[in-house]
Design brief:
Strand content: 15-25%
Distance between the termini: 44 Å
Helix content: 40-55%
Order of helices and strands: EHEHHEHEHEHEEHEEHEEHEHHHH
Number of strands: 12
Oligomer: single chain
């Protein structure tokens, strides 16, 4: 039996599907209020037998604050894919993010102690990478620099990684993957599922960029790494870097919208001062923090050479990924180009 946390999220649902395609029995964690119909519907994008696969999933409500609840969920489980996480850059979400990402990981790993779990894959993020190699790239050896200012999300993922490495040092077979921004279908408007609604409703964008990867690649690679027992290692999973302006152009053009205007770093810093002065009055200004400005005004080169060499993997191109998932978004929202 395989246990997947965050199974209703953009990544978790596709990891579940990938495991089912491999013939695995899957127990999937959800909240009582989770939208399983959204998961079932999104499977229509990924397989010709969405109901057949969906009906094989054993869904369980799990309370990550309750060790007994976690231990019950791990009964008979040999492999865990920990995909659950709170993703946000809103300062109002900091407390929930720290609790979900750090304490939730800690509790899950404690529950694994004394259980039958033999393999554990932890989904982290490239947000924890700081230092550059001799080629000026971030790679698996890039470390987290505590002296730099980080978003609460990056800090929470770094500290949750530390929990996974602790468990590894204590004997659990652990793999950590660090995906870039994941492009997927469903869960529109939440977590990384917000990418298309964001580019649709905002007529502005930023000068920086990010490193992206298709959800299908992340899920396939995660399962393959577990099959190959690549324990005690970290693997960056990105397809390519792209500036927000380029991404906005591709998305907004297909949606029949005008090109987005670029907000300069100077304009953003004006907004940061407005946040300092009026953030208590205007909630949206609270998003304009120093770490957020730095993140959206830069584009780091992130190396994917390790995973390509290890698995001989060929990534889905970002343009192809955007077209595929944007079509799904437009069909779901009945948007005509």
């Amino acid at each position: 039996m395989v246990f997947v946390t965050g199974a209703t999220g953009i990544l978790g649902r596709v990891v579940v599907l990938e495991l089912l395609k491999k013939g695995k029995n899957v127990r999937a964690a959800k909240r009582p209020a989770s939208n399983l119909n959204d998961v079932r519907h999104s499977y229509t994008f990924y397989t010709k037998d969405p109901d057949g696969f969906f009906n094989r999933i054993e869904w369980v409500d799990v309370d990550f604050d309750d060790i007994n609840s976690l231990q019950d969920a791990l009964e008979g489980v040999e492999e865990v894919y920990h995909c659950a996480a709170k993703v946000s850059f809103d300062p109002n979400d900091e407390k929930e993010m720290y609790h979900t990402n750090i304490k939730g990981t800690e509790n899950l790993l404690h529950a694994c102690e004394g259980s039958g779990v033999k393999k554990f894959l932890h989904v982290s993020s490239i947000a924890v990478l700081d230092t550059l190699n001799e080629q000026g790239e971030m790679d698996e050896d890039s470390s987290f620099n505590p002296k730099l200012e980080h978003s609460a999300y990056a800090l929470s993922k770094h500290l949750s990684e530390m929990e996974a490495w602790r468990a590894s040092a204590e004997g659990l077979n652990v793999i950590i993957i660090n995906p870039g921004m994941i492009i997927g279908s469903g869960n529109w408007g939440e977590s990384s599922g917000d990418i298309f609604p964001t580019f649709e409703k905002n007529s502005f964008t930023f000068s920086g960029g990010s490193n992206y990867v298709d959800v299908r690649d992340v899920a396939q690679i995660a399962v393959e790494l577990m099959e190959k027992n690549c324990f005690g290692e970290r693997f960056i999973i990105v397809a390519e870097g792209r500036r927000y302006t380029e991404l906005a152009k591709q998305i907004r053009s297909k949606l029949g919208l005008k090109d987005a205007k670029v907000l300069s770093e100077f304009q953003l810093n004006v907004g940061r001062w407005a946040n300092i002065l009026f953030g208590w009055l205007i909630p949206k200004l609270r998003m304009i923090t120093k770490s957020n400005i730095e993140a959206i005004s830069s584009l780091n080169t992130v190396s994917n050479s390790k995973i390509k060499k290890r698995l001989d993997n060929q990534f889905i191109s970002l343009s192809e990924s955007i077209d595929f998932h944007l079509n799904n978004y437009m069909n779901d929202k009945k948007i005509k180009p």
